[in-house]
Amino acid sequence: MPPRSNPTARQGRLGAELRKMREAAGATAREAAALLGSGQTQISHIEAGRFGVSEDRLRRLAAFYACDDRQLVDSLVAMANERGGGWWEEYRGILAPKALDLAEMEHHATGLRTMEIAHIPGLLQTEAHVRAAFSYVDPELPPSELDPRVEYRMRRQAVIDRAPPLPYDVVVHEAALRIKVGGTVVARAQLAHILNASDRENVTVRVIPFSAEDFAGAGHSMLFVRGCVPQLDTVQLDAAHGSTFLDAEPQLKPYRARLDRVGRSALDPGKSRELIHRIATDM
Questions:
Q1: Rounded to an integer, what distance in angstroms lies between the CA atom of residue 235 and that of residue 253?
Q2: φ and ψ at 2, to 5 degrees?
Q3: What is the Cα 249 distance to its own chain's centre?
Q4: Strand-strand pairing, 242-246 and 168-173
Q5: Which pTM value belongs to this model?
Q6: CA nearest 256: which of 274, 277, 276, 230?
Q7: What DSSP state is assigned to residue 138?
Q8: Which among 43, 53, 47, 59 has a CA at the least distance from the CA of 12?
Q9: Is the pLDDT assigned to residue 206 strictly greater than 70?
Q10: Where are the beta strands (DSSP E) in the chain?
Q11: Among 117, 125, 223, 270, which has the minimal tally of Cβ within 10 Å of its Cβ?
Q12: Which pLDDT score is estimated for 240?
């Protein structure tokens, strides 16, 4: 079987975790290859996500690397045993691969935490808001490009409706709530939608008000995707060129701390609801 030409972020993550495990053990790719009776090239392909790995081989490698973290190994085995893609594969060749990677990460997450300063969180956006936001680009997208993007974002939102419920913790700045994306009617409907979503037991919405005195600002969006074990957590950042994924522990640690610190500037859920109601009334 030829190697994958474009492995998904999840396939790459599996290989990267095996590489981290090998390097932590001080083992070489040649030694790993000898254990499996293969060549170094195959080990390189596995660690780059271009080849899959069977459960038996993965467990043999983990034992050889003296990894005693059973939860991590079991989580990697579950990743290795995944067969076929999810609904997002319908958009391959239509949308950017990293957009599909994000939906896959959300699908496998055990919890989501997001911070938004200037935007409404994507999983809480109404269809009218999404369409208005995607229409505000230069050059303007034709319907053949716009419609799939809108549909795709709306389909992603099913992740917070699944069973068992996925914990979704949202911290959003008042500034984002007051921006009238799509006009006043669309903006009011958007705020009503956020209030309705916050009625769910698994969704927590907290607002950082303009009056907060201990908030110094954080200009970019951030989504923290919690994995089955902390080692498989991922941070997703938005940029003009698309998504960036961070998964190294030295990168994850400060983002965990930033989410906690920003959260301390936010109102509690009850007061956040009151503020959202006032903003909607003011429009």
A1: 10
A2: -70, 155
A3: 16
A4: unpaired
A5: 0.91
A6: 230
A7: S
A8: 47
A9: yes
A10: 111-116, 168-173, 203-208, 222-226, 234-239, 242-246
A11: 270
A12: 65
